[in-house]
């Protein structure tokens, strides 16, 4: 596999947005205060991999505005290479607002015509991708615009030609496109990756069946190894000739489930980087995801390598 100087082990790209969260249960309409942060599936994953001790680059497109600067600095501060990210003049950084009312969480997006939606294949540094070990892409980038989809396809082509492993999480978001729009695009992208990382609920929608047997039969037709999240207390590893089941780690507490999937993917890809078997990598992914939901925030609770080791019992925590 290519290992070109100047490239991190993992390269990813996508939209990161400013995030304002209502601080109380009255919702956005009546909340007195909003907490400012940011979020994005790909930057969450990048931060997760960096915290686990591996090199990673995030190549997003942000507006040359206060939110864009805040996001770029924060991602860089987490040890992620943002040298290929873009601050675009005249293009706003996307924004999302989050609220929880009567125990039900909702997200409201303001991302139409955002900087990230103007992403295009020419933004990519082909040598940077070709020098990585893994390229990770998601269906969110494919959904935000036609040029976003073209960029995802081109990145996958570059990686495949260079022998770089391609990881694809469909991240189906029905607020961005309809299921009929999403289905052919996401299923096509699944045909061109090495690791397909869907949820079981997403597959039921994409394959139009609630039968696990039928879903697994479809997955076995892919060239990719499928890592299926969301089983009954386990994650499936689906290959052409076998299915393995990897149990979840029990979360110590559940405060916020946002970011758990990104935490899982970060742990799984880190396992691949370390030469783990697929099942061992999934085990690390399961652990990472279980630790994320124990605190509030899209990425803030992503664990470090030391915290993972402590959770596994390999290190003793000294309180004082």
Largest sheet geometry: 8 strands, mixed
| Form type | globular
Rg, Å, rounded: 19 Å
Q: What oligomeric state is this?
A: single chain
Secondary structure tally, helices = 12
| Number of E strands | 14
The fraction of residues assigned to DSSP E strands is: 15-25%
Order of helical and strand elements: EEHEHEEHEEEHEHHEHEHHEEEHHH
Distance between termini?
A: 46 Å
Category from helices, strands and their pairing: alpha/beta
Question: Which runs of at least 5 residues are low in confidence (pLDDT < 50)?
Answer: none
| Strand order, sheet with most strands | 4-1-9-10-11-12-13-14
**What is the mean predicted local confidence, pLDDT?**
91
Fraction in helix:
25-40%
InterPro entries: Carboh/pur_kinase_PfkB_CS, PfkB_Carbo_kinase, PfkB_dom, Ribokinase-like
GO molecular function: kinase activity
Keywords: ATP-binding, Kinase, Nucleotide-binding, Transferase
Protein name: Sugar kinase
What does this structure look like?
The protein is an alpha/beta fold. The chain contains twelve helices and 14 strands. Helix content is 37%, strand content 21%. The chain is globular, with a radius of gyration of 19 Å. The protein starts with 9 loop residues before the first strand and ends in a 9-residue tail after the last helix. The mean pLDDT is 91.
TL;DR?
This protein is an alpha/beta fold.
How does the SSE layout of this entry go?
Blueprint: E1 10-12, E2 17-22, H1 27-30, E3 34-39, H2 41-51, E4 56-58, E5 61-63, H3 66-77, E6 86-88, E7 95-101, E8 104-110, H4 126-130, E9 134-138, H5 139-144, H6 146-162, E10 165-169, H7 179-190, E11 195-196, H8 200-206, H9 212-219, E12 225-228, E13 234-239, E14 242-247, H10 260-273, H11 278-292, H12 305-311
Parallel strand pairs: 1-4, 1-9, 2-7, 5-6, 9-10, 10-11, 11-12
Antiparallel strand pairs: 2-3, 7-8, 12-13, 13-14
Helix pairs in contact: 2-10, 10-11
């Amino acid at each position: 596999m290519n290992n070109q100087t100047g490239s991190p082990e993992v390269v990813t790209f996508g939209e990161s947005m400013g995030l304002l969260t209502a601080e109380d249960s009255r919702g956005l309409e009546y909340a007195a205060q909003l907490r400012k942060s940011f979020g994005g599936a790909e930057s969450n994953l990048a931060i997760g991999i960096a915290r686990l001790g591996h090199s990673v680059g995030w190549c997003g497109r942000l507006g040359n505005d206060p939110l864009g600067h805040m996001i770029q600095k924060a991602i860089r501060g987490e040890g992620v290479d943002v040298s290929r990210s873009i601050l675009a003049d005249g293009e706003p950084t996307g924004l999302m607002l989050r609220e929880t009312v009567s125990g039900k969480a909702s997200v409201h997006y303001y991302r139409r015509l955002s900087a990230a939606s103007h992403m295009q294949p020419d933004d990519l540094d082909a040598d940077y991708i070709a020098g990585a070990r893994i390229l990770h892409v998601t269906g969110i980038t494919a959904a935000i615009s036609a040029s976003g989809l073209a960029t995802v396809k081109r990145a996958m082509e570059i990686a495949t030609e260079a022998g770089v492993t391609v990881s694809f999480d469909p991240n189906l978001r029905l607020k961005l496109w309809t299921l009929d729009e999403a289905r052919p695009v996401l299923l096509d992208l699944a045909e061109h990756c090495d690791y397909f990382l869907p949820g079981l609920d997403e597959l039921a929608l994409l394959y139009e069946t609630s039968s696990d047997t039928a879903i697994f039969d479809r997955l076995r037709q892919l060239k990719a190894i499928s890592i299926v999240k969301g089983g009954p207390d386990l994650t499936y590893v689906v290959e052409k000739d076998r299915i393995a089941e990897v149990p979840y780690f029990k979360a110590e507490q559940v405060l916020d489930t946002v970011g758990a999937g990104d935490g899982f993917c970060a742990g799984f890809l880190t396992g691949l980087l370390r030469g783990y078997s697929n099942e061992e990598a999934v085990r690390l992914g399961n652990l990472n995801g279980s630790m994320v939901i124990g605190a509030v925030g899209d990425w803030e609770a992503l664990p470090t390598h030391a915290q993972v080791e402590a959770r596994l019992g390999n290190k003793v925590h000294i309180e004082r």
